[in-house]
Structures are given as C-alpha cells and as structure tokens.
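User: These chains co-purify. Model them together.
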Amino acid sequence: MPTKLIINCETGEQTEVELTAEEIAQREADAKAYEAEKKAKDAELAAQAKVKADVLKRLGLTEDEAKALLS
Amino acid sequence: MANTYTLIASSTVGSGGAANIEFTSIPATYTDLLIKISARQGADNAFDLTFNDSTTSYSTLRLQGDGSAVASNNAGGVTSAIRSIGIENTNNTANTFGNTEVYIPNYASSNYKSVNVDGVNESNGTEIYMNLLAGLWSNTSAINKIKIAANAGSLVEYSSAYLYGIKNS
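Assistant: Joint model of the two components:
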C-alpha cells in the first residue's frame, strides 16, 4: 500500500500513513491523465519528425547533409 | 524584496519510499513560501502540486528545454493540480536526484495564488531537462497545506523537501 509523509508545521511532528482509497483513485486518475498528455506530446514530436523526414526525402538529402548545409 | 528565510519544516523519505510529502498547518505569518525539492521517482519526471486538499482550479504553463530543443505546453490542460516537472526518473542517470524550487508569493492573501517552479534533471551525460513553469491556483483561500505527489511510483529513499517561509520585512 502506498504511503504519504505528513509534516505538521506547527508541531514539527512527521507521520507516515497509508493513502486513502480516494487518494489512490485520484493518483490513478492523475497517472492516466499524465499518460494521455505524454502520448499526445509523443505523437506531436513524431508528426514533426515525419514532416522533416519527408522534406529531406523530397530534397534528396540525408539529415547529416542538411545539417552541414545549415551550419 | 525578501530579506528573511526561515526553515518551517523539512522531510526526507525513508527506506520504504513515499507517494506524497505533505506539509500541513502552515502558519500564515510569512509573506511568501519557498520549497526546495531533491527527489527521484519511477519512470517520468512529473509531480503534482496541490493546496489545501483542493483538486480543482489549477492551471499550468511550461517552458521546457532538453538540451537540443525548446517546447512550451499547458501540461495537457490538467486542472486537478499544478503538474510540475523536475524529479529525476529511472531512465535518467542512476543514483542522481532532480532539483526543483517552488516559489509561492503571497500565499496567505485573498487573491488567486501564482506559483513558479524551476526544475532540472540530468540524464546520462547526454541530456539535460530544464523546466520553467508558471502555475496558478484560482482560489482566494490562504494556503495552509501543500501536497507534493509523485507522478510515477513513489519518491525514493533520501528524496527530500524543505519548506521555507519568507518575510518581506
């Protein structure tokens, strides 16, 4: 069972307690949302890479050749 | 201009790891709050910041650099937390911890709470991730509780968070 550290700033007391069912559910929802965000970002990067590769292909250049031209 | 820094509380994760670090009963006697985080977790670099147990009315804007490109995004439009980045993950260099600063000005005021987060990760000598983030909690309550939640697995042993209070006079 995941735990959390609670530090009471008034007393300085630190306790370690197990997450509640509600907190576990929120944590799972957050993880799913993050996964969706990550997938969207990866898809965006993949689309950008494809556009770049297509342009290079049309020009008949390798990526290294394109870099040399731009340096 | 801040001229005093007072350590309010700190915590270091023990051998079993911990999903969250929570600072409760934060006194309203300072002007601003600063949290220094050194942490490592599972397979990603994100962590969630929430206040007073609220899971609504947050927004996040990020500027991210990875050593070769810069990107900006709104963390997928997440509103349940300020989705921050700056915790080292298992794909980064072994035995290293990400470093993050969270600054919360006027945390006890009756205005909405703006937050800035500045975090870095190092990855196997080949990549560096820098994240500058502007967060907002659209709520007028004074902040008296802060939760730092790992986004992947648990914060590992020796991860730490230090909460400072800052007065402007």
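The interface with chain A takes residues 8-11, 13-14, 16-27, 44, 46, 48, 55, 73, 75-76, 78, 80-81, 83, 149, 151-152, 154, 163 of chain B (CB under 8 Å).
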